[in-house]
Amino acid sequence: MSSTPNLKEIPAWLSASITRKHLRRVVTALRERESKREAARSASRKADAAPPTHSSRAGQFFASLRHPKPGRNVDEHYNILTGCQVEHLPKNRYLDLEPYDRTRVLVGEEGRYLHASWVLERFGHKWWIAAQAPLPSTSHAFLSVILQPSTRPPDHLLGGSHASNPHSRWGRVRTVVQLTQNVEGGRRKAHAYFPDGVGKSMIIPVEHGSQAPALKVTLIDARAFKEAHCIQSTVAIVPVAHPPTGVSAGSFEDMEVDEGVDEERYGEHNEERILFHHLLYTSWPDHGVPETEDRASLLAFLRLVDETNRDTSLVGQLSDVDPDPPIIVGCSAGIGRTGSFIAISSLLRSLNVLPPPASPSPSSVLPTSPLGSLPPELAEDCVAQEVDSLREQRPGMVQRDEQIVLIYQTVIDALQAWS
């Protein structure tokens, strides 16, 4: 593959977007807009404690949101009040990083808290769940999303008549993408919520206040995809009525257990056994991007994720199976690598490199940003538009400037490789 893009093989907007001058313009515009969102989020954090100080930058911007144009309900657009509640703070991996209230994922009928957001690709039209990597205190809620018979965005995100579209099928999540190693640079980045040995099981306790049963999680199979730099695991989840002694609600101490002869020793609800695929990409460093020589593996991984999610073998012979359900994707914080991965997937879908989603949602369901449109000179730049749209849905998506550049580079690589 040539290292120099053949501009005749890529769209005009992309050809015009790979100059240093244009990239600086993109980075600056996106940074300024995210700074304004952070000012609003900062004011939201303080909203319950005291009125915002209008002499501050955050206070001035937050006050401006309280005087919207007629018909625009932007009062709560950037609210993060749920994630700031005292009982939820230990469930946030990083300080001052909480999901927007309007896009956050509610777990089960209880509406349990999880640091995860519903995110729609602007140009690819597929829904994702973008999540921080589980903590010991959130592993049960994370797995409970997969146990839900139907996982779909709330009606207010689907928009009007699309909320009851009879042609849309919303099934169970069956694919989890992890873009971080559990430990990187000697620091814990993700809590392991299934065993590392095939055939071994682990009991995951529920948090205090929830009536949900503990979960037994078993690693069924693991295989490596060398070209995609991926380890794919097949994992089973079973609710248990009688967890072993030492596993109690709120203990957050996972316990590995032996299967033994009596496979139902903990009161397993085997009729509720659910399988899912976990795909770990191993070549994306924290706070960075894959090395140039690893970008081919990223493309292979993107395709593998899409193909795996469309594989219905895990659900047997059920007649009404969602052929392409939402995918859970996360890194440590669930914003930098996660946002970049979704953005690349969206653009490759829009350019017919990846297939379209089975039940697409139009970008028109996304609300208009209180910040207005991007500058006119970025109106045709699909990367800038995609990144800005993702940041409207989850704070800090595509966290670093080099990750924005990676999106351009990876789309060009894909068009060259698969044209």
Automatic annotation (TrEMBL):
Basic and acidic residues compositional bias: what residue ranges?
30-48
A GO molecular function term, named singly, is:
protein tyrosine phosphatase activity
Residue ranges constituting the Tyrosine specific protein phosphatases domain according to the UniProt record: 299-405
UniProt-annotated stretches for the region Disordered: 30-67
**All residue ranges annotated as the Tyrosine-protein phosphatase domain in the record:** 87-414
Classification via Gene3D superfamilies:
Protein tyrosine phosphatase superfamily (3.90.190.10)
Q: Which family does it belong to?
A: Belongs to the protein-tyrosine phosphatase family. Non-receptor class subfamily.
Its name, as the record gives it, is Protein-tyrosine-phosphatase
Source organism per entry reads Laccaria amethystina LaAM-08-1
